[in-house]
């Protein structure tokens, strides 16, 4: 699960906060949970309908080492990811 936190320093880039639910996922499925377990990442291919700040989205991600946002030195840089698939959303309770 990821929450859209804000736009990033370059147009079209968004910061996502990942919820660390890997232990729960691994126990349920018995499979490897992946490299990204929590914290913040940035992406430029989040579908437009999910770009609202506060939106919680269930996504599959992969690390993107090909390119990233161009930011001035005062911006925080986060790992760059690609959204592989949007699996659903969750409204705040």
Care to describe what's here?
It is a single chain. The protein is mostly beta strands. It has one domain. It contains 1 helix and 5 strands, in the order E-E-H-E-E-E. It has one helix at residues 22-29, and strands at 2-7, 14-18, 39-43, 56-63, 81-90. A 5-stranded antiparallel beta sheet has the order 3-2-1-4-5, with no helix packed on it. The model has no long low-confidence stretch (mean pLDDT 81).
Which helices and strands appear, and what pairs or packs with what?
Layout: E1 2-7, E2 14-18, H1 22-29, E3 39-43, E4 56-63, E5 81-90
Antiparallel strand pairs: 1-2, 1-4, 2-3, 4-5
Name the quaternary structure. Answer: single chain
The percentage helix is: under 10%
Which structural class do the helices and strands define? Answer: mainly beta
Q: For the largest sheet, list the strands in their spatial order.
A: 3-2-1-4-5
Largest sheet: 5 strands, antiparallel
User: How many separate domains?
Assistant: 1
What is the radius of gyration computed over CA atoms, rounded to a whole number of angstroms? Answer: 13 Å
The N- and C-terminal alpha carbons lie at a distance of 14 Å
Mean pLDDT score, rounded?
81
Strand content: 35-45%
Number of helical stretches of at least 4 residues? 1
| Rough outline | globular
Order of helices and strands: EEHEEE
Low-confidence stretches: none
How many β-strand runs?
Answer: 5
Quick summary of this structure?
The protein has 93 residues and is mainly beta.
């Amino acid at each position: 699960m990821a929450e859209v936190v804000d736009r990033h320093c370059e147009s079209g880039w968004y910061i996502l906060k990942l919820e660390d639910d890997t232990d729960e996922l691994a126990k349920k499925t018995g499979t490897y949970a992946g490299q990204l377990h929590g914290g913040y990442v940035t992406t430029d291919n989040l579908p437009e309908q999910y770009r609202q700040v506060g939106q919680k989205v269930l996504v599959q991600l992969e690390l993107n080492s090909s390119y990233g946002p161009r930011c001035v030195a005062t911006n925080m840089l986060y790992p760059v990811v690609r959204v592989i698939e949007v699996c659903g959303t969750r409204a705040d309770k």
